[in-house]
User: Which sequence fits this backbone?
């Protein structure tokens, strides 16, 4: 049929039939499912299993072997340091003098001894140690919604070996206990958190307080 | 041998069949195994992400709101950009949303995040914390993230085998997978930054991260996935794209290398800020240059489809030969065509005629080349605009 506007024959006026997207050819069905879609889906699931199951399991099976030796010092961003307990394992963070190539130490370091974990985090903070501890408490409550690990009890004072005064409070949670300490060095806040099972004996507790008291920052004299 | 109109119409039909242009995409396909796989993985990712946001919203609400708003605008701008560069055999918008969600939720939370954490921890255990900080990210994320994102394309092909036909389709879908990954990862990074100062000064702590991620993001996940997925199509082969293993492997390896370099910049750039900045700019420029080259490489087939679909319209005098060349040409060809028309007013009109001709091409594709009312209307619109008659609608 010629097109009245162009005087040239028009293409066909009805679209050619195409089966809808849900149609599966009879010879491609397997229990009603399109068999051509099975292989790519299984390939993706295999990748998911490798990434989300196999790798985490392998990681869990490999023990960490970065054990603290006498004299080791862990350094964090902003020249903050602490002395980890000999025999504990460093699970994040690096020793002083062993900075990454970027020259900037990480903001967080964690050492562990069996179920007891001691973590130090540093960042800029405007205020004193009590204000920092209040901030930590507020954030912790907002994140945990009254459940899980909570900062509990009144603030008490703690003094580092360097003579820096900080604030500390107890941490409680289901089958977990611990302590949080806060210091502020010239606009740099430091949060130290130790957690472990509620029935942790006096020895790890003493070790944790030794590590807290070892936290230091250059330029902080006795107060 | 003379080519008849019937031959041209047949060539158009073949081009439409081959390209999948104009075919509607239906997401709900209960008899498609990939549909269920996609649903499970994206659903799980959404749940993980929503749980994280819900848990942290009370603590970091300000930073989350800022990040979500900023990156929503960023995503909208990107969407506009892809529409701007894709004049040719367009993919259904619904398919792009499906790609975006894969990148945002499945590739991130179900796949890459778990793998990255494990590999980084294994590196630290094997080579030490300092080595892991230097090279861990550069030797884990490129492999886990690029494969996680790219694997989504396998599901998309299984979900839309009639639409995903060319390496250019892979490029566009890959870009959307990358965009989804980028946006959701950036929101997570903003949350981490918000918590970095003990939850205080959230906006100040996260704004730098948001800005840096936005600036660097264009030459990061979006570009990496686009190149990777174009390569994957070459590697697999599609009805409209013959298999080219060498080219496919090269395009799959390139973003992995770019990503690895990007993630290792701090270690490579060492302690000099100037070296780091120079490297940063160099990697961004190289990534963008490669992306443009891959775009030029893949878009040729799409332009051929436009030519095949619109040649019968030129033969019927609906469009001119110059308009056909402009439609099936690159940006320069369209610009040259507009400039050739002389005065500003005429140039404006030629632009409108081209846009109307692209509308006609889309209608023809949707009608599978048939002469429907919509096609006739779109054809009449080309004539109306060319004649300078105001629209009655």
Assistant:
């Amino acid at each position: 049929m010629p097109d009245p506007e162009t005087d040239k024959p028009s293409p066909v006026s009805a679209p050619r039939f195409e089966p809808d997207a849900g149609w599966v050819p009879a010879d491609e069905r397997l229990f009603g499912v399109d068999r051509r879609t099975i292989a790519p889906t299984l390939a993706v699931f295999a990748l998911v299993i490798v990434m989300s199951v196999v790798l985490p399991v392998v990681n869990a099976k490999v023990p960490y072997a970065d054990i603290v030796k006498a004299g080791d010092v862990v350094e964090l961003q902003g020249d903050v340091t602490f002395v980890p307990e000999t025999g504990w394992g460093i699970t994040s963070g690096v020793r002083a003098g062993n900075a990454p190539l970027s020259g900037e130490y990480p903001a967080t370091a964690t050492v562990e001894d069996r179920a007891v974990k001691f973590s130090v985090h540093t960042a800029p903070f405007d205020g004193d140690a009590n204000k920092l501890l209040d901030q930590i408490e507020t954030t912790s409550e907002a994140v945990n919604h009254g459940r899980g690990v909570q900062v509990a009890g009144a603030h008490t004072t703690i003094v580092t070996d360097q003579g820096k005064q900080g604030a500390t409070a107890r941490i409680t949670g289901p089958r977990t206990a611990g302590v949080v300490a806060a210091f502020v060095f010239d606009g740099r806040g430091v949060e130290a958190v130790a957690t472990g099972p509620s029935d942790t004996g006096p020895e790890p507790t003493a070790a944790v307080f030794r590590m807290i008291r070892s936290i230091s920052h250059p330029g902080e004299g006795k107060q | 041998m003379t080519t008849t109109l019937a031959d041209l119409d047949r060539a158009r039909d073949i081009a439409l069949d081959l390209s999948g242009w104009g075919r509607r995409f239906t997401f709900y396909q209960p008899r498609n195994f990939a549909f269920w796989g996609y649903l499970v993985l994206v659903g799980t990712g959404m749940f993980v992400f929503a749980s994280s946001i819900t848990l942290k919203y009370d603590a970091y609400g300000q930073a989350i709101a800022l990040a979500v708003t900023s990156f929503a605008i960023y995503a909208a701008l990107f969407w506009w950009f892809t529409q701007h560069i894709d004049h040719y055999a367009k993919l259904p918008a619904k398919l792009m949303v499906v790609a975006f969600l894969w990148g945002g939720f499945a590739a991130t939370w179900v796949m890459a995040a778990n793998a990255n954490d494990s590999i980084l921890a294994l590196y630290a255990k094997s080579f030490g914390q300092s080595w892991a900080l230097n090279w861990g990210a550069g030797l884990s994320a490129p492999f886990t993230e690029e494969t996680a994102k790219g694997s989504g394309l396998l599901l998309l092909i299984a979900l839309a085998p009639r639409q995903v036909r060319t390496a250019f389709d892979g490029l566009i879908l890959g870009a959307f997978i990358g965009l989804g990954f980028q946006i959701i990862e950036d929101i997570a990074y903003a949350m981490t930054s918000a918590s970095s100062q003990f939850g205080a000064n959230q906006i100040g702590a996260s704004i730098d991260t948001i800005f840096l991620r936005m600036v660097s993001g264009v030459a990061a996940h979006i570009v990496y996935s686009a190149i990777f997925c174009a390569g994957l199509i070459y590697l697999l082969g599609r009805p409209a794209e013959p298999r080219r293993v060498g080219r496919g492997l090269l395009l799959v390896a390139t973003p992995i290398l770019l990503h690895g370099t990007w993630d290792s910049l701090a270690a490579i750039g060492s302690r000099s800020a100037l070296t780091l900045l120079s490297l940063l700019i160099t990697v961004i420029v190289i990534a963008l240059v490669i992306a443009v080259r891959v775009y030029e490489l893949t878009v040729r087939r799409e332009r051929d489809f436009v030519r095949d679909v619109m040649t019968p319209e030129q033969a019927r005098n609906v469009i001119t030969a110059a308009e056909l060349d402009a439609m099936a040409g690159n940006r320069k060809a369209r610009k040259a065509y507009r400039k050739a028309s002389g005065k500003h007013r005429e140039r404006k009109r030629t632009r409108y005629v081209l846009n109307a001709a692209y509308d006609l091409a889309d209608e023809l594709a949707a009608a599978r080349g048939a002469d429907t009312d919509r096609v006739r209307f779109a054809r009449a619109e080309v004539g109306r605009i060319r004649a300078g008659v105001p629209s009655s609608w």
